[in-house]
Amino acid sequence: MTTETTTTVSPVELTSYELYVDGSWIPSHSGQTYDTTNPFDGTPWARVPEGDDVDVDRAVAAATAAQEGEWGSFTGFERATLMRRLATILERDAGELAQLETRDNGKLIRETSAQTKALAQWLNYFAGIADKLEGEVIPSDRSNFLIYTRHEPVGVVAAIVPWNSPLSLLMWKLAPLWAAGCTVVVKPSGYTPVTALELAKRVHEAGFPAGVFNVLTSSGSSVGKALVAHHGVKQVAFTGSPEVGVKIAQSAAEHFARSLLELGGKSAQIVFADADLDEAVNGLIAGIFAASGQTCVAGSRLIVHRSIYDELLKRLAARVRTIKLGDPLAPETEMGPLANQAQLATVSGFVDRAVSDGASVLVGGKSDPERGGLFYQPTILTDVTPEMEVAQLEIFGPVLSTMVFDDEAEAIRMANATVFGLAAGVWTTDIRKGHRVAHAVRAGNVWVNSYRVVAPNVPFGGSGASGWGRESGIDSVKEYTVTKAIWIELSGETRDPFRLG
Ligand code: NAD
Question: Selecting from 3.40.605.10, 3.30.1240.10, 1.10.10.60, 2.70.98.10, what CATH number does the domain 17-263 have?
């Protein structure tokens, strides 16, 4: 990211965008812009507005007006129709959106293609819920009352997303919140602002009323802060780091807004002695080296039974040494660059400190500057102990910390020995053990003999420093509703005004 004043590329070479507010494209209030950079070749490629507090006011006002106006009057059937129309448009444009996402964050095209294809799936699934948000009739202990509930939209949502999977993580919020009847102001990461703006073009084309979807871009955190603190925002849906998540929850609580937090992780992959090692190697690679380890569910701690440690590590290291690093747009590439310079520095720092703390590098262990982009080699660390920083803190890079266990209870203790609780993998051919360990591990998502699989109808989320609330799954719509109880007096008789009940 650079500001306009430091930009060296002429504006004509860049794709330019404006903010999307109240159904219109507008320049930012300040008139400032900044450029977003392709992490593979380091070139700025798109110019986006630098929003400010005035833009936040405009967007929240638009979202509030839509909530209280046309969108608020729509039935679930009408919202579902619009959502399905958008799903069709996104299916049509999935390839183009994948290219843009890869240019913005350097993620493999094979990964972003799968993610953009899935956007329609999320919309269609939640469109199917929009017209089924049924309240209940509650049996009364008094014969003169009819009591029923309604699930009403919580109001304007602030959706704040990170740079690693910008469109997917945004859709995980949009689909349920629209199904619930809410409106939204979106703040993408400063590093990856483009695809939210591209999504706005398609939301517009689908015919959503003005103000239902608004996008504010900004290179720093000021717009996100102002948005969360805005009294018109009734709920924040945030995906990002635990450090920012805490600040967001505090700021939202100041004005009694709710918050849904999807934060980081330090997920364990437990491999038992009876595991199919070839399958496990494949799943371990998927867990930590896919997406260059820049995924919240990265299986960054490998916990292996002592009897198979050497053999597993030998097979794993052999495969990791053949991982093809390169242009994320090339279909044969298996690992792309990290998404930004700051992330590269973070990953290097973690590995360097681990080595000083006594860990050994089995594979990788350094950046790869001769490739040109922000590459860090896929890295396996041995001689890691559970209390080391690399076994406790999220790195968000292609670094696997490996440790040994002797029995099932120890494996579970080690898996649960961090502040996080997002995901875990269990590798065993013993079905009883698979279930037992899946129950005992503190994680919102456990895969047995698999890793990193998600679906719109399956709840996703964590506990502890991994956040609270659930995205996806039928109940996630309720994250965006408030339940109202309605009492209808049926007899017409006057009651004692000084008695409760
Ligand atoms: P981040 O927390 O730095 O930023 C996330 C977003 O918050 C960005 O849009 C940023 O501009 C905004 N922001 C920053 N400070 C803010 C503030 N004070 N108020 C309001 N908004 C603010 O995270 P990141 O570096 O972009 O992403 C990486 C993190 O995201 C990792 O910790 C990762 O584990 C987490 N993540 C979690 C999930 C999940 O579903 N649990 C998924 C992907 C990423």
Answer: 3.40.605.10
Domain 268-448 indexed as CATH 1.10.3720.10: no
The DSSP secondary structure of 470-498, one letter per residue, reads: -BSSGGGGGGGEEEEEEEEE-S-----TT
Range in 156-170, 227-241, 334-348, 380-394 the model is least confident about: 334-348
CA atoms within 13 A on the CB side of 321: 9
Q: In what order do the strands lie in the sheet with 137-138?
A: 137-138, 145-153, 481-489
Catalytic residue among 111, 198, 296, 479: 296
- Tell me the C-alpha distance between 393 and 70, whole Å: 46
pLDDT in tens, 175-227: 999 999 999 999 999 999 999 999 999 999 999 999 999 999 999 999 999 99
Question: From the CA of 189, how far away is ligand 1's center (Å)?
Answer: 8
Hey, which of 241, 266, 396 would you mutate to test ligand 1's pocket, going by the most ligand atoms within 8 Å of its Cβ? 241
Residue 6 burial (CB < 10 Å; 0-12/13-18/19+)? Answer: exposed
Among 50, 111, 198, 262, the active-site one is 262
Name which residue sits closest to atom 31 of ligand 1, judged by CA: 241
